[in-house]
Amino acid sequence: MSAATLSALAAGRAIAGYALRESLRRRILGVVGALTALFLVLFALGAHFAFEDSGRVGSELSTDGSGFADYRGATLLGLAMFATLFLGAVLATFLTLGVVRGDAEVGLLQSLLVRPVSRRTILVARLAAATMIGSAYVAGVFAISIGITALFGGYTPDNPIAVTLLLVLAVIAITAISLLASVFLSGTAQGITVLMIYGSGLTAGLLGQIGDALRAETLVNISRVTSWGLPFEALYQQALYMMSADRSAISKAVLGLGPFGGAVHSGPALYPFVVAYLIAMIAFAAFAFERRDI
Amino acid sequence: MSAPAVEVRGLTKSYGAITALSGVDLRIEPGQLVGLLGPNGAGKSTLTKLICGLVRPSAGSATVLGHPAGSMASRARIGYLAELFRFPQWLTPDEVLRLHQRLACSGGGAVERGALLERVGLVDLGPRRVGEISKGMAQRLGLAQAMIGSPQLLLLDEPTSALDPIGRRLVRDILVGLRERGASVLLNSHLLSEVEQVCDSVTIIDAGRVVASGSVDGLRGGRVVEIETEAGIERFEATDREAIPARIRELVDAGRSVYGVRESGSSLEDAYLEAVKGAGE
Predict the structure, then answer these.
(1) Is-contact A125 A19, C-beta < 8 A?
(2) Is B142 within 8 Å of chain A by CB?
(3) What is the ipTM score, two decimals?
(4) Under an 8 A CB cutoff, do B88 and A110 touch?
(5) pLDDT tens across A80-118, in order?
(6) Which pTM does this prediction carry?
(7) Residue B249 is assigned to a structural domain of this protein
(8) What is the CATH number of the domain that holds B65?
(9) Which structural domain range is residue A63 located in?
(10) Chain B contacts of A10, Cβ < 8 Å?
């Protein structure tokens, strides 16, 4: 490894460490932590009563007990997945808030940029720090959600690791979008824009469900294109699909009606597409950052 | 022959329809302390940022110690204090310097950090964080940060704007010390007296153009000095700084008693006002 590469790695580590510490000190982390605790407590309570109540109904109505347990578990965990991704999106947005233009406007960035460190290294290091925290958060919250449905209803999803990784990848996509937005927009505008983009993805998912129900192919196509354009939505839909890939038809049907985007199997092409998408986003952000006057 | 610390040729910077700098030339030799003067909005900070690589030129070129401005090689050799800057409020001054040491690849460690904090008068701060220190202290910290790794060129944009008279004196001493160790300094300041006291030469810019440039004495156009002896007050025009002690020596060698020496001629302020006024007409 050349001296320049080693030097860039050392600088990248220094910036990532600084960004990690900064992220952990942000007030939003406390807010997200409190919201998460509240969500998990409510989810546990909800799961407890949902399994208890529907267990009684299920035993009266269902001839296939396991299918009904899948239905309950899939419904609850699908909701938990939506909430986890929403909280993860909020966290990703705030972890990257004002990273470029916002910090430059208040004079935080200048002294770092005149050091012999490339702007690309600074950007990638900031992305790595935000990704690390966002990924750990999403993986942790979703693992606890799985634990709750397993504890109260004995339900565990199919492919739990793959589903978790898809959610993590979705949050990384949101982080990359937010980082790119930070190059052009100041803090508040960036936050609003990224959350609106996230909302657009969700709306696209909802549109797809409506199109599916109405047999309106154009709506479905619009939804599909938008979901791939904002791939966190496609990843979310893929995660919903993976959750019950091997289950009964009733579970699949329920997840197909999941909140703001049902289960959709996008196929193996989604993964290389998302990797290429992330690389393109980061490359564009770095290109714009390097050309930006500070 | 070593490369100039800064060589700027025909530098132009436009922001849309606004031209911040227009065909600026500037040369700073190694070990030279140059003052950059000009009214608000003249383009001083833009010029400093161009030399740092924070801003890209629209036309012209700038080199730092022979390397293109903004390149890794040039940035490895400079220290910079911005006019408007902030450090993360949650870091201690020592942690700020440690971060910059890592980015500047400085191996000075705790010894360098301690020496720099002491040099700028920031000792005994204990565990206080940046958010808990005064604006003046933060400016001293900024100066310490700029000196990390003993850079060969320092670009200081209004380094004394938040400092009290003691702090300003300290900065002047630091600047003189930097010159003594061979570092070059571009000092961007509104305080003419400060520039007059420490700088070897001055460049005055107005509306993005260089309107005057030269040594401090040269710009002042000679100094009229009054020397009080038993024979009365003698006035003479000193062509440079050394002419003053030389004249006093002559008087003392001639058996005269010198009771006082004071300057009564034009100051840098007069030269500055003339240059800026002349450019505006």
Answers:
(1) yes
(2) yes
(3) 0.82
(4) no
(5) 999 999 999 999 999 999 999 999 999 999 999 999 999
(6) 0.85
(7) yes
(8) 3.40.50.300
(9) 3-290
(10) 102, 105
